[in-house]
Structure formats: structure tokens, C-alpha cells
Prior knowledge:
The chain is of the alpha+beta class. The chain has helices spanning 134-137, 259-269, 281-294, 300-306, 317-323, 331-340, 377-387, 413-423, 470-474, 497-502, 530-536, 543-551, 564-573, 626-637, 643-654; strands at residues 20-24, 27-31, 41-43, 67-77, 83-87, 93-99, 123-125, 145-149, 164-165, 168-169, 174-177, 183-186, 192-193, 216-217, 220-230, 233-235, 237-238, 240-245, 446-448, 451-452, 467-469, 526-527, 554-555, 580-585, 596-601. It is globular and about 65 Å long.
Amino acid sequence: MNMQAPQQNPSNPDLSRIVRAAIHPGIGIARLGNSREPDGFFIGPETVDLAADALGDVRDATGALKRQAARFRLYGYDAEGQVVAELTADQAQIDWQVHLVNRKAQWFKFDMAMDLEQAAHIEVALRNEHLTGAAREALVIDPGVRSIAGKNNAGEKACFDSGEFMGIKVPLGELRTDSAGRLLVLGGFAQSGSPSGRPIYDPDEPGSFPNASEWFDDTSDGPVRASVILDGRHLPVESAWVVAAQPSFAPHAVGWRTLYDLLVDTYIGCGWIKPAEQVSFLHDVLPVLQRLSGLQWVNKGFAGLFGHGAPMDFNNPHLLARLSCADETYRHLRRAVFNAFRAADNDVHEPRTWPWLYGDTYGGDDDLPANHLAPSSVRSDLLRRWVDGDFIDDWQAASGPVDSLDKLPLAEQPAMLDRAALHFCVADAFHPGIELSWPMRHASLYRAPFRIRERAGDQPLPDYGSHLDQPTALGASGPLHDQPPGGLSRWMALPWQIDAVGCRSGYDKDYDPYLPTFWPAQVPNQVLSEADYAVVIDGSRSREQRLASFHSREHWGRQVKGNFIEKAMQVVEDASVLGVLEVRPGIADDTDFPAVMHVEIERSPGGGSAPDVLSARDLPVPEQDAYATDEARRLAQAGWDSAGQYEEFCRVLRR
């Protein structure tokens, strides 16, 4: 007998069928910003396809960076696990509770991902190990739980503004609700500093690069809960988690391996999610290729091979028609593309293979396989099946982009929210990362897919001693299990600005000034400037001028000058000094120019414009010395002001 779930009218659901509720996304991502305007925020992505105006303006009228709010929704489920309705303040009494904490300064230093083979014999010390007793407790920024209910609500009682670091208050954000009573979590104001005046980086202190002593930042994370009363019934509610991470300076860009990809691989590995029975070109293969082309807007090296009109432009419909064809005709083309990628079981140190991204172990002196990123074993298996023709050619039949959650059937909305929140976050390299770090690839961290295993509030935190080793970190009673508020962000760089300035691309300028790179989707390397964009779309200019401007990418971060510490401190003082990429219209139906372009928008003059700087193509060099000319051009192309600055950055990176 074939039993089917009863049909219902989505506009008039039977709420009596609801037996439980769940908060989505399971892991939400807020981002810091320094705008102090009442409307100085935007809502983060809720679908993986973003319209050009989906996020709105990412700067306010003063040029400050708006904060990204994480929006959480409640969905009601029936006894069979089917979605019945989204629950809003119109149908139910909803009270939200959130607990944001920052534990970075009290946690252990970052040296490398502790689950690597190379970490088997290392021990990492506590950050601020010179502080003991009550002084260590003063390193945790914990304002406590905040609650909110109703529609369009906000206010002082919903602000995380009472937490302190070494005696000074550090706001971690606030709660709001939208017009339907959904929860908005906003993180901090991109504030970092040292109450005692310690340097952000001390070259005489080993391991201080991502571990600044007596420093704080206002990233945070913690649980998101809700109590729901529906028609007089108290519903059990599946809680969620929120992370307030550093800003993304290219908010529409997608990294080559997303945090969502990583978590799916983790859940497949532990048996929570079944691997794909059939390989879909559209869903399993195309993203691996097109994300290479998407990085053209944040790295000039990627633009050269994968950009618009380039030999491997994976947005080119003629190329995709061949790659999506499952018969033998283009089998060798598929194999050639597959062979260009680094093998998942790669045992050599090779920067030439795709995806041209640094791996977890980069930064040391040893040539290790994990110095460069490779497809995961799950993804490699899918690509091998694609090479063999064992896949569905579903590219031509693909529907248009779903750029609004309302366009999706109700049943698909919760999963889309879970995916979209993590789709615009990067996974590797965990050095230590951008939003989150290496613990995210361990199934012990979760109680279910996209649900963090939460530590009971009445349980004291374990004392792991003065040093953390691999057996303890990975052990059954170690920190990769139930999480306290602040348990995820504590593994990250302190402060976050150190990675935004310090981890970039092209460290071996003699090999390539632009490649490999770390996390260009969040921290760009080379960008299409607004000035060059103006030339590109100016039809009165010559074709040669427009092409030269399109292919001439400026160095992102050129607004900050000086040595490593000076650059980092300028971003600490004002994160909005850095450019942010926005989506702008390009040239339709043109072989040389794409119809959509990602353009770097610098801070407006009203916010204090950045000083003029020379571009790489304008850099003067001495004509009489050919070597000096080549050396100067290589340094300028790689974004270094001088050979001394380049050497200093390399020393800092390798610590």
C-alpha cells in the first residue's frame, strides 16, 4: 500500500499537524562591520544564487562597512518529518535567546591544524600564558544570554554590550527581529585592540603572528534557541548556532571549496549523508569548474586562465557543452581537465596543479603535500565518474537561478538556508582560516548535520592544562565535542586583521606574482578597480584602452601602506579603509567583456578616501639595470612596496 503525506495548501497550512519546530539555518553567519548607522547592516545570503542587488549597499553613507546580519527562521514539522509551515509571529508566540562569547585570548595559540600528521609531536601553549587566576578569566568576553520577541524589535536589552576584556567593555553585537518576528543576529563593530598597549605582532615572541598577547577582537559565536507556543502548545525546538566572523571583502564571491562542501564531506564520511548514487554534471561537477572562473575577480592569476574569454573560461557555453556531454566524443577533454587538478592522495609539493590554493601546512620550510589544496576524496570520486562518462548530462535542462527563498517550494527552504549560510564561507586552508577552522571537519563537533553539539550550561569547562597536544585535542574528552558559547571562534587568529593583511598570494614572486593564494573569495588579491571599470564600460574609448583596463587588476589592500605592523594597525583602526567588491553591469553580448563584473568600491570621499597609490603598471623602474627593472616589476606585480617588505612578510608567514 502506497502511503503518501496529505496534501495541503501552502497559503493555508494545517498548523495542528505541527509537532516540533527547528531553527534554520543550523549554523548562521553574521559578519563584523564598523557602521554605526541605525540601518548600517544587511541580511546575509539566504540562497546560493545571489541577484546583483541581493545584499544592497555594503557601505553606509559615510563609507563605513555595514554589518552582515544572520537571519534565523522557524519551520514547523509534522510527525513524519515534513515541513508544514514557516512559523512567524503571526501564528505563534516566539521568544528568541542567543548567547555570544569570545574566548580567543584565553584559548590556545594557533600553530597549525592539530589533526595533521605534522602536528603529532607539537604542543601549543595557551595564549597569554603569563596571566593566571582571575586575570585569565578577564580574557573572556561574555555578556551573557540576550532575549528578544515580537516584530521589528530592537533595543538596549537585546545588545551584547556588557562583556569586558581586561576591564574594558567590548560590545559583541545585538539582536533584532524583522517584520515577521524572525531573528536577526548582528555581530560586533570590527573593534580590536590591546588595553595594555601590546604590539599586534612581536617578532621577538615566537608564534605571535596570529596570537597577539593581551589583544582582543569582537568576533564571537554561540547557541541560538527559541521557545515557541503554537495554539497553546509548547513545541520542542531544534536549536541552532551563530558565528560572528570577520567581514568578507568580496561578499558575492564563492570560494573554490566552501564550508558547506566541507561539512557535507564530513557527514558523508560518518554516514549521516549518503553519497550521490548518480553524478550530476550540474550539481557535482560544474561548481568545481565554475568556481575557478569566479575567482577571476579576486586574483589576476585565475583571471588569466579561467576568466572571461580565457582558454579555460568555465562560463563559456561552448566549452560547457563539450564538458557536459557524457559520450566518448569528449572523454579525453574531461580527462585532461581532471588531470589538471591535484590528486586527492597527492604526495608531492606541486604549485602548478589546480586549484592554485595554499593548503593547511603552507608557511613552513618543508615541502609537504598539504602545502597546496586538493579536491577531497568525495569530490575526486565524483570527478572520476564524470571522466568515465558515468554522470547525468543535466546542464542544458537546468532551470534559472533561484535568487530568492520565496521562489523555492516550502519543503526545500530549510535545506537552502542551511546551505546558503555556509556557501559564502571558505573551508581550507585552515591556517587557521577565515570564518572557522579545522575542528569543523570533525563529526564529533555535531549532533546532526549542520547542528553543533552544545555543551550543557551547568557543566564546567575542562582544564586542558598549559599546553595542548594532538592526543588531547583529538581525544574523546577533548575540545572537538560539545561546545560552549565561543567554542568555535576561539581557534581563529587573534586579532582577525592579522590574517586579512598577512595572508595573501604569490609569496614566491619568481614563480608567479599572483599564485598560489589563500582565501581570495573573502580577502581579495587583485581586483578590477572602479577607475578601470569606468574605462571598460566607456564606449567612447578605444577597444585597446578598454581591454587594457579590463585586464589590468589593481592590488587589493593598496590603501594601507608601510611594514606589516603598520598595515595591520591601519586595518585595526578602520577596517573600511579596504576596498569591497560589488556586482556591477558589464557589457552584454561581447566576446571580450562579461555581462556582469565584480568591481572594487573604495571608501567614499565622505568617509575619508584612501591616498593615491601607484599601480604596478605605472611603477617607475631604473632603465639602466635590466635586473633591477625585472626585480622591481616582479615586486610591484606581487603587491610589495619594496624588497624589504616582501622579505619581512615571508619571515612573518613562516614565523
